[in-house]
């Protein structure tokens, strides 16, 4: 008897690459204006899209990107990039990374964002970066709940409508 392994509705993640430009552009164009704004905190004209796509796939050539796929379609993206070192209580330098994630509107609330965060935090911790930061809109209740649900020791700084949340990478794993 032969059996066929059918993989449906499974989400898998892998690193993004410069060759994923067309898939990434399709994903970005399909985002609602609200999701796009909550992720990038600004708008981009259509002419800026290719540059944005390149940056999101190969962030500054020193960070990294992840794509989440379902049935061959990109349904989520996450990236990390080095941030300026932070200083600990005793003045020691603590290397930091900034992360950003976005999930296609129709797939939100299904655990994909949490999985991207897990994979990104694991990645930056492996690189020896001990602090993780996210810059989010103060009105972004979903992300704020995600952060407080994961870790109690979060430091917040506010700059107008934006909040930077910082936590130790190990506390997020
Ligand atoms: C933030 C975002 C990436 C979360 O991804 P997601 O796949 O929807 O998140 P998950 O399904 O893993 O859920 C994470 C938590 O948020 C909660 N959540 C998700 N969507 C929610 C919604 N619409 N309303 C209320 N809670 C929600 C989940 O219940 C879950 O809580 P739990 O950890 O206590 O179970 C996604 O909502 C998104 O793309 N938002 C727009 C872009 C953005 O805000 N990016 C973050 C800035 S860096």
Automatic annotation (TrEMBL):
Start and end residues of each N-acetyltransferase domain: 11-161
Keyword Transferase: yes
InterPro entries per UniProt: Acyl_CoA_acyltransferase, GNAT_dom
Superkingdom per UniProt: Bacteria
MF terms in GO: acyltransferase activity, transferring groups other than amino-acyl groups
Gene3D superfamilies: 3.40.630.30
Keywords from the named record: Transferase
Pfam families per record: Acetyltransf_1 (PF00583)
Protein name, UniProt field: GNAT family N-acetyltransferase
Organism (species): Mumia zhuanghuii
């Amino acid at each position: 008897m032969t059996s066929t392994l059918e993989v449906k509705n499974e989400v898998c993640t892998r690193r993004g690459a410069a060759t994923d430009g067309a898939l990434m552009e399709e994903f970005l164009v399909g985002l609602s204006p609200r999701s796009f704004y909550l992720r990038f905190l600004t708008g981009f004209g259509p002419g800026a899209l290719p540059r944005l796509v390149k940056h999101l796939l190969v962030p500054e050539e020193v960070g990294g990107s992840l794509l989440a796929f379902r049935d061959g379609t990109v349904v989520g993206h996450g990236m990390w990039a080095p941030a300026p070192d932070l200083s600990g209580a005793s003045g020691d330098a603590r290397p930091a990374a900034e992360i950003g994630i976005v999930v296609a509107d129709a797939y939100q609330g299904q655990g994909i964002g949490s999985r991207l965060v897990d994979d990104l935090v694991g990645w930056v911790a492996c690189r020896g970066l001990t602090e993780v930061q996210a810059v989010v809109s103060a009105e972004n209740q979903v992300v704020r709940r995600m952060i407080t649900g994961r870790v109690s020791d979060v430091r917040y700084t506010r700059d107008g409508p934006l909040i930077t949340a910082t936590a130790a990478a190990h506390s997020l794993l």
